[in-house]
Design brief:
Length: 524
Amino acid sequence: MALSGEAILTPRLRRQNRSTTGALPTAIAAAPPLTRAVPTTAESAVVAAQAGRWQRDYAWRLLLTDSLIIVGVVFGAQALRFGQSNADLYIPGVTGAGFDVAYTAVSAVFVLAWICGLRLYDTRDAKVVGSGWAEYRRVVDASIRVFGLLAIFAFLLHIDVARAYLLLALPAGVTALVGSRWLWRRWLAAQRDEGRFLSHAVIVGEHAKSLHIAREMQRDSTSGLVITGALTERGPGVELLPGIPVVGSLEDAIAGTELVGVDAVVYSGSDLISPAQLRQFGWDLQSRNVDLIVAAALTDIAGPRIHARPVAGLSLIHVDYPAFTGSRYAAKRAFDVVVSSLALVALSPLFLVLAVMVRRDGGPALFRQRRVGLEGRRFTMLKFRTMVTDAEQRLPDLLAASEGNGVLFKMRSDPRVTSLGQKLRQLSLDELPQLVNVLRGDMSLVGPRPPLMSEVDTYEKWVQRRLLVKPGITGLWQISGRSDLSWDDSIRLDLYYVENRSLTSDVAILWRTLRVVLQRRGAY
């Protein structure tokens, strides 16, 4: 879809557009940019129908998959618990007399309630599927609440439902549902790489604010939201970013021009647009079935910390501050101790083998280095040695060949790295001794990258927030590019983790770390 004509699209977006919705409507494609009249209702209806088709198709696929999983899990739990016998559930009556209901009928009601629960919690809403954690969280919440309501219902009516039947169905069902959503996301991401299943949007607002929003949105390639143009106070003739032309002015946006063929409008904010104009603008978009997305100036804040608070007709955004103490800290520490202890016991034979192999060149098995941890406290970080024994002495001669940015030393073909060390780095096996640091309390399993003292000396004040939590063996930097990341991207990811960390995100990062390590991406 184009904004006001296919001419403003890049060749790549033009191909993506045709593969998603077919050829452009003739009335839209023929319209000259910046001069066409306000789009008619018929034109908007055509574009809206094309834009929403893939979302409806995808939702139906999710519904079919969810239904098959729930049916299989519930009736599978029944078969495992009762076998082939015709088991009945006794339901007490009000006057003392009761009646029996076959568990097959109970399972059918259970299936229907579960499917309805997923629907009521909008687990297939186009706004949450495909990216982010909201989809998974809604699936889990809906499932647990359905089980909870059924348990309350059974308790109040004194119905003795077989516990093993429920204990088999809940974890198996939740796991299968989340797993299927993850597989569908992989499929959706592949389709989006081919230019399909995309939503096209324009940014409306002040040029500087729109530039910031566009840059941040381009960081996330999984959202499926493609910015195809912008409308700012500078008017047409310039580019917001390469590939994102400014196709009109703010007056064009308010008048309704340049908004044909888009699925959404991202409003970045402008003092030139009054609240009354913005309200009318939203009504106009609603009549064309175009979504209005208001982008907050505050970035890198995760959804659970943001709450909409209506006050006197205003939509105020309440932002929770990150918690670094209390029950969340205790839960994270307990998780670190349990997992690191079990890992050290399970991996002790591997530790012994690697230690012997590293010592074959005559040097020590472990490399010890002073790093900076929580609140600036220094500690000794442990790693399997991957370089020659005089690596520190040879560093000054290599600084000129650094591929870093002046803060971190990076070199893809560092001559100080041994052949065994290269393999250890690719598989991140050299990091395993840091499990001892985790058990000691110097580090965590997941957290910001542990910095050198020389790095901390260069920190600006805002970067020092990295030190509000313990550094981690892995983190967002590990699953987002590892050594290929720039300094700015590394800082941004670490600060995002500091602001939005949770035990759930830690588990997800550990899982994704395993995948990244096995693929050997970005390690050198």
